[in-house]
Amino acid sequence: MSSLASPFAFGALVAAEILLAAAVSEAQTQAPTQFHSIALSGASGLSLGSSGGGNSYATHTPVYVDVAWRTWHSTTPQWVTGFSLRAEVDGRTSVGVVPRFEFSRSVGRLTLRPGVAAAIFFAPYVLAGPEASVTFDLRLGSVVSLIGALSVDVFFLGNDVPARSVLFATNGALGVAIHL
Amino acid sequence: MSRSTSDRRGLAALALLAALALGCEDGRCVRHSDCAQPLSCLATRCAIPPTDADTGVADTAVVDTAVVVDAPLGTDTTVADTVVADVVADGGASTDAAEDAAAADAAMDATGD
Predict the structure, then answer these.
(1) Global ipTM
(2) Residue of chain A minimizing CA distance to B24
(3) Interchain contact, B44 vs A60, CB within 8 Å
(4) How many angstroms separate the Cα of A127 from the Cα of each of A95, A157, A168, B32?
(5) C-alpha dihedral over A44, A50, A55, A61, to 10 degrees?
(6) Per-residue pLDDT for chain B (113 aa), expressed as one digit of tens each?
(7) What are phi and psi of A164, to 5 degrees?
(8) pLDDT digits 0-9 by tens, A74-105
(9) In whole angstroms, what is the distance from residue A4 CA to residue A74 CA?
(10) Domain ranges of chain A
(11) Cα(A178)–Cα(A39) distance, rounded to whole angstroms?
């Protein structure tokens, strides 16, 4: 009896070990993970100033560089948060921060991230307003990707905005991202 | 025909891009930081910022200094009258006070003569 049971017991043990190893492997691959990326981009576009008197004027947006950090969790990869450090480097020098919240949707190597943000320049003057954007992230490898973005800003707060005026800006950005 | 229209649109787009690339037209602005100091952006144009109606200090002070420096040497009354004229032209709230002061100055000069 025991001689018959022994091969079955051994087989059962091997099967159990295989199942356990598979379960552990699956658990490891599905372990909650926080992902991060750092992106560097340059941007410019069109700015339209509109004053209360009916005057409006359009000019190019001062070129700015944007260093963006983004993070998302493996359990909810569609929701991305982060912020940028932004600096205008064209005709003036200013710095600001841009906290953002995005929805991420991947199609093959391309990831689209529509989102909302608050663009806040704080030095040497204050210029702030909401920003809506769409970011395109094209994976070039396991770590690096090419990114582009289109954004629309409405600035109406701060001492850089003329009285009774609103500043609209439509900008395009191009850069690279590194996925950590 | 349609190609010609297309060409014109393309040229117009290029002209717009070139204009945007060149930056602000002189004196036009959308933000205060588009203007050289001490100018501010007023109704999309760089201009001297208006003075506070309660004090009228900055604008008046600059004009008065220029007048005093450029004015020929003369009596106190002449200088005071010139200052009053400038203040009146500015239309600031400080006009009455300055006018009174100048009138008093002139009266003192007349009395002294």
Answers:
(1) 0.78
(2) A59
(3) no
(4) 10, 6, 12, 10
(5) -10
(6) 455 666 777 666 655 555 555 555 678 999 999 999 899 999 899 999 887 654 444 444 333 333 333 333 433 433 333 333 333 344 444 444 444 444 444 444 444 43
(7) 55, 35
(8) 999 999 999 999 999 998 999 999 999 999 99
(9) 48
(10) 1-31, 34-179
(11) 6
A71: enclosing H helix or E strand: strand A56-73
Burial grade of B98 (CB within 10 A; 0-12, 13-18, 19 or more): buried
CATH 2.60.120.560 given to domain A34-179: no
Least Cα separation, residue A106 to chain B (angstroms): 33
Helix (H) / strand (E) containing A133: strand A127-139
Q: Are A48 and B30 inside 8 Å of each other by CB? A: yes
Tokens found for residue B113: 């003569």
| Residue B61 phi, psi dihedral angles, 5° rounding | -60, -45
CA A98, A101, A106, A107 torsion-angle sign = negative
Count of CB atoms within 10 A of residue A93's CB?
12
Cβ-defined contact of A59 to B31 (cutoff 8 Å): no
Report which of A177, A180, A152, A178 is spatially closest to residue A167, judged by C-alpha positions.
Answer: A152
pLDDT, tens digit (0-9, with 9 covering 90-100), for A14-38: 776 777 666 656 655 668 899 999 9
